[in-house]
C-alpha cells in the first residue's frame, strides 16, 4: 500500500478499486465488495476513473441505459444508486456524493490503481510509478465491459484518453530522471505499451542521414528505383531502436548544395551518413551502399547488393534483414527486427508515390501541392490498398491548406482527415496518419482529441520528424511549452534545415521567458529563408523595439513567395506593400500605443472585408498585439491549418501579447474551443497551473 493510501486509511474507511483488467472493489481490510448489479459495478468504475469529478446524472443514465426512454433510464439510475449506496454502507463507506443533477465519488475515501499511478508521476515518485505500471501491465481499462454501442464508444475513448495521459507522464518522467531510473521506467512502460520509444531512453543513440542515391541506368525509361531503395532503407532504419534519422526535407535541401560529406553531416547534425548508387541493367540491379563517419568522412562499412526488379517490388529482398543487421553492427547497436511495412507491389503506383512525395518536399507553392495530389491519386487508382500513399495524400491536403492561399482550407483539412482514416484502416501503424487526424481535430474544436492522437502517433512512429513536430506544436498551442520543448528540440535535431521547426523552437523559448535563446532560434530561421516575425518577437521581448520593427519590415520582400498572399485578395504593388508592412511593423513592435491602435483598426477592417476573415494575416498580428477581442472572435469561429500556428504565440507573457490570456473572458473562450477539456485531461498551461475559476 502506498504512503498516499496509508494516509487515507488513517482518515477513515477506504474503498480500494482496481479498474484495469477485471473490476475489483475491496474494503480497507481487503474484503472483496461484491456487487451483483452489473451496471452498479460499471457506475462505480466510471466514477473511480476521475474521483472528485461530478458527472451529469442524465448523461450517466443515457450511457448505462441507452436502450430505454429517458424517464425509465433515470429511474433505473436512481435504483442503481440506492443499491450501490446500500452495499457501500455495509462496509462503512460513505463516499458517494449525490445531488439532483450530479454524481461523484469522494477522492478522500478512494484508493484506485489509476489514481495511484498518476499521483506517483505527479509527485515524482518514480519507484512507485514503476511498481504501479508493472502491476497494471497491459490490462485494459474496465476489461470485458460490453454494454451498448454508446457505452462501448465512450469506454473506447476513455481508454485512449487515459493511455495518452500515461504516455505523456512517462515521457516527462524519463526526460527528467537520471538514466538508470529512466531505463527502468522505459522497461516498465513497455509492459503496457510494447512499442513505446523515447528519444531519451536509449543507451546508444546514433544520428543518421540516408542521402539520395544516383541511378545509372542502361535500360532506359523513367524509373524511380534509386528513390525507392533510399525510401525502403530509410523506413527500415527509422524503426530501429537507437537510431535517430534526419528528416527528408533537410536532407533534400542540404544534398543539393554541393557540400562535402563531412559538411553535410555537420549541417544535418548527424554522426553518420549512408551514401550509395544504383545501377540498373538488362540482368537486374546492383546497389552499392556505404556507411560514412560524419566526423572524418571515412567509410565505416560498405556492401554490394544484387537482385532483380522483382526482388525489390515483390518481396523487398534488396534491402533485407541482413543489410539492416550489418549496418546496426557497424554502428555498435544491437540488432533488432525492423518493423514490417505494408507497401505496394505495383511499380507504376510506387513511382507515382515517390514523384508525389518529392513535389510535397519542395514546398514551392500551390501548383506543387496540386501536382503531388494528382500523383498520389493516380497511384491509389492503381493500388487502392497502398496505405502509405493514403498517408502521403492526407499530408498533401493538410500542407496545401496550411501553406497556400486557399479559400477552402476546412474542406482541404477534412479531405486530409478522410485520407488519413483510410490509411489507418489499411495499416494501423501509420503514426503520421494519426498526427494528421490530430490537426483536423483542432478544426473540429477538439484539441483534447488532437493531443491524444499526437501522443499515440509518437508512440507508433517516434522517429518521424513530422510526428514529433506535430506533437510539440499541439502542446505549444495549449500553452504547455515545458512539455513541448523536448519534442520541438527533437524535431530540430532531426530536420535541422527546415525553417518552420525554428519558429516552433523560438515560440517555445519565448513562452518560457528564454528570450535570448528565442533570438538565436529566430535568427537561424531567417538564415534559412523563413520570414523574420519570430526573430522580431524575440527582439521585441528583449526590449529592442527598433530592431524588431526593422526585422518585420524586411519580411515584405517575401510576400507572394514564402509569405502567402491572403486568399482572394488582389496583388499589391510595391508602394502599397511597403506602406502596409510599415504600418504593421510599427503597430506590432514599436511599443507606441498610437501605432498599435492604428494597426488594430486596420486589421479590424480587414477582418470585416477579406474573403477569408480568419486568415493568418489577421489572426497572427491580432495575437501579437494583444488584440484580445479579435483573437477570441477569430478562433472561436474558425480554426484551420493556416491560422492554428499562431496559437503558440498566445502564451508569450509580455505586454501586450499577454492581454488575451489575461482577458476576463479568456477561460470561457478557451472552454468554447475545447482547450479547457484538454487541460483537464493533460494538465493546465505553464502560465495557468490550475483552473482559475476554482481559485
Automatic annotation (TrEMBL):
Q: What SMART domains does the annotation carry? A: TPR
**Which GO BP terms, alphabetically?**
regulation of DNA-templated transcription
Q: InterPro entries attached here?
A: AfsR-DnrI-RedD_regulator, Sig_transdc_resp-reg_C-effctor, TPR-like_helical_dom_sf, TPR_rpt, WH-like_DNA-bd_sf
Query: This protein's superkingdom?
Result: Bacteria
Recall the GO molecular function terms of this protein's record.
DNA binding
Protein name per its UniProtKB record: Tetratricopeptide repeat protein
- The scientific name of the source species is Tsuneonella dongtanensis
Amino acid at each position: 500500500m502506498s504512503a498516499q493510501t496509508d494516509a487515507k486509511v488513517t482518515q477513515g474507511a477506504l474503498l480500494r478499486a482496481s479498474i484495469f483488467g477485471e473490476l475489483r472493489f475491496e474494503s480497507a481490510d481487503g474484503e472483496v465488495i461484491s456487487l451483483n448489479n452489473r451496471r452498479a459495478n460499471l457506475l462505480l468504475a466510471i466514477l473511480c476513473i476521475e474521483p472528485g469529478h461530478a458527472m451529469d446524472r442524465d448523461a450517466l443514465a443515457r450511457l448505462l441505459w441507452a436502450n430505454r426512454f429517458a424517464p425509465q433510464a433515470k429511474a433505473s439510475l436512481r435504483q442503481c444508486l440506492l443499491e450501490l449506496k446500500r452495499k457501500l454502507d455495509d462496509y462503512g463507506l460513505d463516499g458517494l456524493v449525490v445531488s439532483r443533477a450530479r454524481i461523484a465519488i469522494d477522492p478522500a475515501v478512494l484508493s484506485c490503481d489509476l489514481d495511484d499511478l498518476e499521483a506517483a508521476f505527479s509527485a515524482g515518485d518514480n519507484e512507485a510509478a514503476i511498481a504501479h505500471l508493472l502491476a497494471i501491465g497491459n490490462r485494459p481499462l474496465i476489461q470485458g465491459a460490453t454494454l451498448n454501442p454508446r457505452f462501448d464508444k465512450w469506454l473506447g475513448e476513455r481508454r485512449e484518453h487515459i493511455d495518452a495521459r500515461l504516455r505523456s507522464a512517462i515521457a516527462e518522467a524519463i526526460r527528467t530522471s537520471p538514466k538508470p531510473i529512466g531505463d527502468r521506467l522505459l522497461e516498465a512502460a513497455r509492459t503496457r505499451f510494447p512499442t513505446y520509444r523515447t528519444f531519451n531512453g536509449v543507451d546508444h543513440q546514433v544520428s543518421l542521414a540516408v542521402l539520395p542515391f544516383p541511378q545509372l541506368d542502361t535500360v532506359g525509361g523513367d524509373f524511380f528505383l534509386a528513390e525507392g531503395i533510399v525510401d525502403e532503407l530509410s523506413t527500415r532504419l527509422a524503426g530501429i531502436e537507437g537510431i535517430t534519422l534526419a528528416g527528408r526535407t533537410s536532407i533534400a535541401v542540404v544534398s543539393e548544395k554541393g557540400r562535402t560529406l563531412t559538411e553535410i553531416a555537420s549541417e544535418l547534425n548527424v554522426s553518420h551518413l549512408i551514401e550509395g548508387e544504383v545501377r540498373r541493367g538488362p540482368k537486374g540491379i546492383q546497389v552499392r551502399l556505404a556507411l560514412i563517419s560524419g566526423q572524418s568522412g571515412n567509410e565505416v562499412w560498405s556492401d554490394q547488393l544484387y537482385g532483380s526488379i522483382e526482388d525489390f517490388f515483390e518481396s523487398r529482398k534488396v534491402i533485407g534483414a541482413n543489410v539492416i543487421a550489418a549496418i546496426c553492427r557497424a554502428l555498435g547497436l544491437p540488432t533488432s527486427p525492423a518493423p514490417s511495412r505494408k507497401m505496394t507491389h505495383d511499380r507504376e503506383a510506387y513511382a507515382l508515390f515517390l514523384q508525389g512525395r518529392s513535389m510535397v518536399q519542395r514546398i514551392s507553392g500551390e501548383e506543387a501541392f496540386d501536382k503531388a495530389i494528382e500523383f498520389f491519386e493516380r497511384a491509389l487508382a492503381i493500388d487502392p490498398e497502398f496505405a502509405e500513399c493514403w498517408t502521403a495524400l492526407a499530408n498533401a491536403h493538410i500542407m496545401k491548406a496550411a501553406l497556400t492561399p486557399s479559400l477552402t482550407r476546412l474542406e482541404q483539412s477534412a479531405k486530409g482527415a478522410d485520407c488519413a482514416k483510410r490509411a489507418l484502416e489499411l495499416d494501423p501503424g501509420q503514426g503520421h496518419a494519426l498526427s494528421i487526424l490530430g490537426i483536423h481535430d483542432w478544426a473540429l474544436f477538439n484539441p483534447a482529441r488532437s493531443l491524444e492522437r499526437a501522443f499515440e502517433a509518437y508512440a507508433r512512429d517516434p522517429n518521424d520528424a513530422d510526428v514529433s513536430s506535430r506533437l510539440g506544436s499541439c502542446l505549444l498551442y495549449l500553452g504547455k511549452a515545458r512539455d513541448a520543448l523536448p519534442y520541438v528540440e527533437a524535431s530540430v535535431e532531426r530536420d535541422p534545415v527546415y525553417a518552420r521547426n525554428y519558429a516552433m523552437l523560438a515560440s517555445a523559448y519565448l513562452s518560457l521567458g528564454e528570450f535570448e535563446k528565442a533570438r538565436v532560434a529566430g535568427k537561424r530561421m531567417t538564415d534559412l529563408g523563413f520570414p523574420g516575425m519570430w526573430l522580431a518577437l524575440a527582439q521585441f521581448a528583449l526590449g529592442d523595439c527598433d530592431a524588431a520593427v526593422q526585422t518585420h519590415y524586411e519580411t515584405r520582400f517575401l510576400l507572394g513567395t514564402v509569405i502567402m498572399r491572403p486568399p482572394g485578395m488582389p496583388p499589391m504593388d510595391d508602394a502599397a506593400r511597403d506602406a502596409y508592412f510599415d504600418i504593421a511593423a510599427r503597430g506590432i513592435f514599436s511599443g507606441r500605443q498610437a501605432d498599435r491602435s492604428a494597426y488594430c483598426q486596420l486589421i479590424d477592417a480587414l477582418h470585416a472585408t477579406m474573403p477569408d476573415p480568419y486568415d493568418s494575416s489577421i489572426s497572427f498580428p491580432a495575437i501579437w498585439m494583444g488584440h484580445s477581442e479579435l483573437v477570441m472572435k477569430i478562433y472561436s469561429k474558425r480554426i484551420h491549418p493556416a491560422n492554428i500556428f499562431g496559437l503558440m504565440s498566445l502564451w508569450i507573457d509580455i505586454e501586450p501579447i499577454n492581454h488575451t490570456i489575461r482577458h476576463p473572458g479568456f477561460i470561457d473562450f478557451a472552454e468554447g474551443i475545447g482547450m479547457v477539456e484538454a487541460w483537464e485531461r493533460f494538465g493546465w498551461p505553464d502560465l495557468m497551473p490550475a483552473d482559475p475559476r476554482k481559485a
